[in-house]
């Protein structure tokens, strides 16, 4: 019989991402001034101390009450979706765990500091990509895994 939920794996992923996110943000915030930067891989990766009081790319900067409400709604929706829709689908449960951890990681920053600590500064094909953090990476990977899980499910139904 197939397991319906992989709670242990989901909790493990969520906790690891949250801890990694918060530790890296703490290290950056306590050891670097905003704007400080150092090169890790020439012409590709820098660690740059940055603060963001908005969403991706600084959209809706300063709208903290909006982010509080939206994030709480998103977290509740993810829990409900996990319970109702992700049965027997390990990939979907992992994706939701990544989304949950990423949203919660940035939410913690907004609640405690009024802004999110970003520090991963990449140059991809000559484009200076917006600075991000572990929580943002978790959100992005979670979305990609949901798309893969949905496409896989669609192929199974055919």
Automatic annotation (TrEMBL):
Tell me the classification of the organism that encodes this protein. Answer: Bacteria, Bacillati, Bacillota, Bacilli, Bacillales
Function summary: This protein specifically catalyzes the removal of signal peptides from prolipoproteins.
Q: Does the keyword Lipoprotein apply?
A: yes
Q: Which gene encodes it?
A: lspA
| PROSITE patterns in the cross-refs | SPASE_II (PS00855)
Q: Which Pfam families match?
A: Peptidase_A8
EC category name: hydrolase
Q: Which reaction does it catalyse?
A: Release of signal peptides from bacterial membrane prolipoproteins. Hydrolyzes -Xaa-Yaa-Zaa-|-(S,diacylglyceryl)Cys-, in which Xaa is hydrophobic (preferably Leu), and Yaa (Ala or Ser) and Zaa (Gly or Ala) have small, neutral side chains
Q: Name one GO biological process term.
A: proteolysis
* HAMAP family the record matches: LspA
Query: Which protein family is named in the record?
Result: Belongs to the peptidase A8 family.
InterPro entries recorded: Peptidase_A8
Q: Which GO terms describe its cellular component?
A: plasma membrane
Q: What is its main location?
A: membrane
UniProt keywords, alphabetically: Aspartyl protease, Cell membrane, Hydrolase, Lipoprotein, Membrane, Protease, Transmembrane, Transmembrane helix
Q: Where is the active site?
A: 118, 136
What GO molecular functions are on record for this protein?
aspartic-type endopeptidase activity
Q: What is its EC number?
A: 3.4.23.36
This protein is called Lipoprotein signal peptidase
């Amino acid at each position: 019989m197939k397991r319906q939920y992989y709670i242990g794996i989901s909790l493990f992923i969520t906790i690891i991402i949250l801890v990694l996110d918060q530790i890296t943000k703490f290290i950056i915030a306590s050891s670097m001034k905003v704007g400080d930067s150092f090169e890790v891989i020439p012409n590709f990766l820098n660690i740059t101390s940055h603060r963001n009081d908005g969403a991706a790319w600084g959209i809706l900067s300063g709208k903290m009450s909006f982010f509080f409400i939206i994030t709480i709604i998103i977290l509740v929706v993810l829990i409900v979706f996990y319970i109702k829709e992700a049965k027997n689908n390990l990939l979907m449960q992992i994706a939701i765990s990544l989304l949950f951890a990423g949203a919660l990681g940035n939410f913690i920053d907004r609640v405690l500091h009024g802004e999110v600590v970003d520090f991963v500064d990449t140059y991809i094909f000559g484009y200076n990509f917006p600075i991000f953090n572990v929580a943002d990476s978790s959100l992005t990977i979670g979305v990609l895994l949901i798309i893969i899980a949905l496409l896989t499910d669609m192929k199974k139904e055919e």
